């Protein structure tokens, strides 16, 4: 029997061939291969798989040919030559497998077929992506102008699909230019980031963070992922859902300084969501974050501390943070870092201090008390001071710490200053400390000027708990005679107290003003009694007693006293 001859030869491609001629030649070769793959004599199973891929390729090529602007698309020009090379190699293998006299090595042929099949699959994937993107139906698709803020959503979405097509199919320069355009788009506004998260292949973008990627591509990709992570809730979730946290932590651990800064910013943003923060431990990120705090640049440290602040809310991670040495690192930032880093570190310490005796003892052991006291006097940030005060409140559970704070005139004076001049958050925390610490009479006298501010806080229904701590602080300060006189001399404070005592005023729980009137009367001063009666306290207390308000009758009795008649005949002299 004569040997089987090879199929028809591949026609040559003219040296000055156009894109149309190249595509026509490729389609012609695919048609030849579809026939020859059915007549092979060896490796029939592999050729059946190849026949299926060739059928899919033929359909894709016909669809490209029917696209109105395919010849203008530079990506098509990069795909077609490599596809032609693959098909020419496949035609050579087809001829060998169709020759009954072929006596080459089977393992070698098997390997060749597998490699060509893999190349064909990759090129099919590129063509499919190109067709699905829709860019072949848009004239000059790959030179679209950058959308400006406020652009039509359809235009922006098409631009995004075009970018990711270039990113996935194109060569090095295509990828770099696509990434640069993507970063520029992401920096425009939050809407653009949401559209990128919706329309773009974020998973592929994260794939470019891999250390196998070209360094220049990986750097721009890191910038894009960082911006995407920080731009909006939707884009941040998408980065996490596509597995971005692990690669970002690897970059944070071993990347260049610039890349580490970008990765740290992204990790901080991702861990803002509690449902994402737990994954830091799963990826082994706790020691990575702490090492970044120790050895990073100031911007890197700020982001790493921010991520630690986010994960301290996760119960299971707190112990890991302590075991890896987070507490001394965070405390050091309280006295030697930027304002933003101080704020994040102080919040972390506040959370840990509130988490149990074990954490509090470690903070005290690392001289945290001294550093927190230093911070509240020196920090220009009200948020940082609030965090430090919260931490001190937690540490004050310890009797030794409570004694130190109570006896510190400088600290108590700072609390009085914050009650008078701080924002509402600071006022509430400072008032709580005044109420709970055993402050000496001398220090109480030193901050007596804040009693009027505490009365004002009593009128505040929000935030929750502010009225209670204001009453507690005021009652504590009123144990000192001079502070009672200070309050009674303040016309506005007495008027506010009477308004709160008025049964018609339903905003304030009557327990609060009753407690303060009782505290004023506890000193037994006839002058204070007369001042309250002149202001209308007697009538209000009588009405409250008639309504059976708890504590009203007892306070009224204190106001009357055994010397009620003499009160009206004496001159107020206190």
From TrEMBL:
The lineage of its organism: Eukaryota, Viridiplantae, Streptophyta, Embryophyta, Tracheophyta. Residues 27-135 form the DUF7032 domain. PROSITE patterns: ARM_REPEAT. It comes from the Eukaryota. InterPro entries: ARM-like (IPR011989), ARM-type_fold (IPR016024), Armadillo (IPR000225), DUF7032 (IPR054296). The keyword Repeat applies. This is Armadillo repeat-containing protein 3-like. Keywords: Repeat. ARM repeats lie at residues 243-285, 284-326. The keyword Repeat applies.
């Amino acid at each position: 029997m004569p040997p089987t001859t090879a199929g028809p030869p591949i026609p040559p491609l003219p040296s000055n061939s156009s894109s149309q001629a190249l595509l026509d030649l490729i389609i012609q070769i695919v048609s030849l291969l579809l026939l020859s793959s059915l007549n092979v004599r060896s490796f029939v199973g592999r050729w059946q798989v190849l026949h299926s891929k060739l059928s899919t390729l033929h359909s894709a090529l016909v669809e490209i040919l029917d696209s109105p602007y395919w010849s203008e698309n530079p990506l098509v020009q990069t795909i077609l030559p490599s596809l032609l090379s693959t098909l020419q190699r496949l035609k050579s293998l087809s001829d060998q497998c169709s020759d009954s006299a072929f006596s080459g090595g089977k393992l070698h042929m098997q390997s060749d077929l597998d490699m060509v099949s893999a190349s064909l699959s990759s090129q099919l994937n590129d063509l499919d992506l190109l067709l699905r993107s829709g860019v072949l139906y848009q004239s000059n698709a790959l030179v679209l102008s950058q959308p400006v803020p406020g652009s039509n959503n359809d235009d922006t979405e098409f631009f995004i699909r075009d970018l990711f097509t270039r990113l996935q199919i194109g060569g090095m320069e295509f990828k770099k230019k696509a990434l640069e355009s993507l970063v520029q788009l992401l920096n425009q506004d939050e809407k653009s980031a949401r559209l990128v998260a919706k329309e773009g292949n974020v998973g592929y973008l994260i794939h470019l963070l891999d250390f196998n990627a070209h360094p220049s591509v990986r750097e721009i990709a890191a910038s894009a992922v960082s911006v995407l992570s920080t731009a909006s809730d939707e884009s941040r979730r998408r980065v996490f859902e596509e597995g971005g946290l692990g690669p970002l932590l690897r970059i944070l651990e071993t990347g260049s300084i610039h890349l580490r800064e970008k990765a740290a910013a992204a990790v901080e943003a991702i861990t803002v969501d509690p449902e994402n923060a737990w994954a830091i431990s799963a990826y082994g990120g706790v020691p990575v974050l702490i090492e970044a705090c120790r050895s990073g640049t100031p911007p890197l440290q700020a982001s790493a501390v921010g991520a630690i602040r986010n994960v301290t809310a996760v119960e299971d991670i707190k112990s890991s943070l302590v075991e890896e040495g987070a507490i001394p690192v965070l405390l050091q930032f309280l006295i030697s870092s930027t304002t933003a880093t101080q704020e994040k570190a102080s919040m972390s310490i506040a959370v840990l201090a509130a988490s149990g005796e074990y954490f509090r003892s470690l903070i005290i052991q690392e001289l945290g008390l001294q550093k927190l006291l230093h911070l509240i006097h020196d920090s220009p940030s009200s948020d940082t001071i609030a965090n430090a005060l919260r931490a001190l409140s937690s540490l004050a559970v310890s009797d030794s710490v409570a004694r130190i704070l109570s006896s510190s005139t400088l600290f108590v004076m700072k609390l009085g200053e914050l009650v008078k001049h701080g924002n509402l958050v600071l006022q509430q925390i400072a008032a709580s400390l005044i109420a709970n610490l055993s402050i000496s009479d001398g220090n109480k006298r030193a901050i007596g000027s804040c009693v009027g501010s505490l009365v004002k806080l009593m009128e505040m229904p929000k935030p929750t708990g502010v009225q209670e701590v204001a009453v507690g602080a005021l009652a504590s300060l009123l144990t000192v005679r001079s502070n009672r006189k200070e309050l009674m001399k303040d016309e506005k404070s007495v008027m506010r107290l009477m308004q709160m005592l008025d049964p018609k005023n339903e905003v304030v729980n009557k327990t609060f003003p009753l407690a303060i009137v009782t505290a004023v009367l506890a000193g037994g001063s006839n002058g204070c009694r007369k001042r309250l009666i002149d202001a209308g306290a007697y009538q209000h207390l009588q009405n409250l007693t008639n309504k059976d308000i708890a504590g009203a009758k007892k306070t009224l009795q204190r106001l009357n006293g055994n010397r009620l008649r003499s009160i009206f005949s004496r001159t107020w002299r206190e």
